[in-house]
Amino acid sequence: MATNKKAVMTAKDDFEVVGKELADLGVTISLVFGKPAFKDVNGHSFACMFGDDLACRLIEGTAEFNEGMALPGAELFDPSGERHRKPMKDWVVIPHTFADQWLKFAQAAYHRPPRH
Questions:
Q1: Cα 110–chain centre separation
Q2: Number of alpha helices (DSSP H) and beta strands (DSSP E) in the chain
Q3: 110 near 19, Cβ under 8 Å?
Q4: pLDDT over 70 at 83, yes or no
Q5: What CA dihedral angle connects 14, 16, 17 and 23, to 10 degrees?
Q6: Is the pLDDT of residue 93 over 90?
Q7: Residue range of the domain that includes 85
């Protein structure tokens, strides 16, 4: 008997799907912190893979930042890998369990100008 189960997507698969959705905006995939990342047309990174999760620059205090941080398992992005040793205050790690929301968060991150 045939089943109608949807194929399980890996985090890499989900990342690539989001990348394809963002390609019309001129978004490219490059490496940041040694991880695959989305960069805007000016070369600024705004989201990257972090293990099986997606870290997005959402800017502390915005609605998107608060929404992301409210997700179970979400945390501030710490590229050092030493959990909360030096987290980046504007970046939120969106767990792979919420990959269906990655595009929304990546789009929000794309539209946020980097702080200088």
A1: 10
A2: 3, 6
A3: no
A4: no
A5: 150
A6: yes
A7: 50-116
Burial code of 44-77, b = ≥16 C-beta within 10 A, e = fewer? Answer: ebbbbbbeebbbbbbbeeeebbebbeebeebbbb
Report the alpha-carbon distance of residue 110 to residue 104 in Å, rounded: 10
Q: How confident is the model at residue 32 (pLDDT cuts 50, 70, 90)?
A: confident
User: In the predicted model, is pLDDT for residue 6 greater than 60?
Assistant: no
Per-residue pLDDT at 80: 79
Cα 79 to Cα 2, 42, 84: the distances in Å are: 43, 22, 9
Q: What is the pTM of this model?
A: 0.87
- Other beta carbons less than 10 A from residue 104's beta carbon: 16
- Nearest CA to 17 out of 113, 110, 75, 101 is that of 101
Asked, for residue 105, whether it belongs to a domain, the answer is: yes
What value does the mean pLDDT take over residues 37-51? 95
